[in-house]
Design a protein that fits this description.
One of its GO terms (cellular component) is Golgi membrane. This is Galactosylgalactosylxylosylprotein 3-beta-glucuronosyltransferase. Its main location: Golgi. There is one protein chain. By secondary structure, the protein is an alpha/beta fold. The chain has one domain (58-303): Spore Coat Polysaccharide Biosynthesis Protein SpsA, Chain A (Alpha-Beta Complex). Helix content is 38%, strand content 16%. The protein has helices spanning 2-42, 44-51, 77-89, 107-115, 148-167, 171-174, 191-196, 252-257, 272-277, 290-293, 309-316; strands at 64-71, 94-100, 122-126, 177-181, 187-188, 204-206, 209-212, 215-218, 220-222, 228-231, 248-251, 287-288, 298-299. The strands form 4 sheets. A 7-stranded mixed beta sheet has the order 3-2-1-4-11-6-12, sandwiched between helices. A two-stranded antiparallel sheet has the order 5-13.
């Protein structure tokens, strides 16, 4: 009899213990839920600032970087500009200056800016290349200078904008800014713009460019003191500045102080970079960036020309695969 009572007591104690554990566990879980809900309701703003998309945006502050992109109509144009737009969206201090080789701006480029939500920090310009300097048919792309008219148009727009801002004492526009020639057939790391933001007033910044000039990398050559001695270019190394357009950026005060600095149709192939830089700096005064020119943050990749033989056959029959679509 006593043994039966003790057994019942043990069962009762075990039952009460289990109920107590479940009760306290439930309270603990509810407090956790309340805590999560509280964070969701009251801490979302803080979380977004520290852990959300904003946390991954590099270079939130810094000089305005005017990224100049000449472009022209071709099958891969939208793809190229879309890729660039995704980079620029991640770098808030970039202002995109797109200049089309055309007699007017196009809906295609306008739509790229709309879809990427970059209309507020971009301008869409146009400047048609003179007929005698246009490539024809199967001309190789190096036969005639490209982008001259478009880059010069961008330089004029930037100079006018900065002059007007200075006259109006607009603090947000009269502060230090930088100009970078950002062609649409290259690949860019967002880290590059962190480096461009370091360019000092009165300086031209330089860095390596990958896959260009017949080399894995073209780069400035520095001495022990970190000064630019020259460049390791294999193609026409006798040029005053044997570097690629993607390998330098210019403090805008230099462009204001030297209005004659621009690009030219009269220089021989490969001398466009030297043509503008000769008015602005010498090699020793250039500012080496990208870990003392040891890091590659931009590549001259280019896009393969698509094979559209089937499309051409369709067009001969009055049809096209992209009818009513923008590709």
């Amino acid at each position: 009899m006593n043994q039966e009572i003790r057994l019942r007591l043990k069962h009762l104690v075990l039952f009460v213990s289990i109920i107590g554990f479940l009760f306290f566990y439930s309270l603990s879980s509810n407090r956790g839920c309340e805590s999560d809900a509280s964070r969701s309701e009251y801490g979302a703003e803080s979380w977004a600032a520290d852990q959300g998309r904003e946390a991954f945006l590099p270079n939130r502050k810094g000089p305005t970087i005017y990224a100049v992109t000449p472009t022209y109509s071709r099958p891969v144009q939208k793809a190229e500009l879309t890729r660039l737009s995704h980079v620029i969206r991640l770098v808030p201090n970039v202002f995109w200056v797109i200049v089309e080789d055309a007699s007017q701006t196009s809906t295609l480029v306008t739509n790229v800016l709309k879809r990427s939500d970059l209309q507020a920090r971009s301008v869409q310009l146009f400047a048609k290349t003179p007929t005698n300097f246009k490539l024809k048919g199967k001309d190789p792309n190096w036969l005639k200078p490209r982008g001259v008219e478009q880059r010069n148009t961008a330089l004029k727009w930037i100079r006018d904008r900065l002059k007007q801002a200075a006259q109006n004492n607009a603090d947000d526009e009269s502060t230090h800014s930088v100009v970078y020639f950002m062609d649409d057939d290259n690949t860019y790391s967002t880290e590059l713009f962190d480096e461009i933001s370091k360019i000092e007033t009165g300086k031209v910044g330089v860095w390596p460019v990958g896959l260009v000039g017949g080399l894995m990398v073209e780069k400035p050559v520095l001495n022990r003191d970190g000064l630019v001695l020259g460049f390791n270019s294999a193609w026409k190394p006798e040029r005053p500045f044997p570097l690629d357009m993607a390998g330098f950026a210019i403090s805008s005060d230099l462009l204001l102080d030297n209005p004659q600095a621009q690009f030219s149709y009269e220089v021989e192939r490969g001398y466009q970079e030297s043509e503008i830089l000769r008015h602005l700096t010498i090699a020793h005064d250039m500012q080496p960036l990208a870990n003392q020119c040891k890091d590659v943050l931009v590549w001259h990749t280019r896009t393969e020309t698509p094979k559209l033989d089937a499309e051409k056959a369709l067009q001969k029959g009055g049809k096209k695969s992209n009818d009513g679509m923008e590709v």
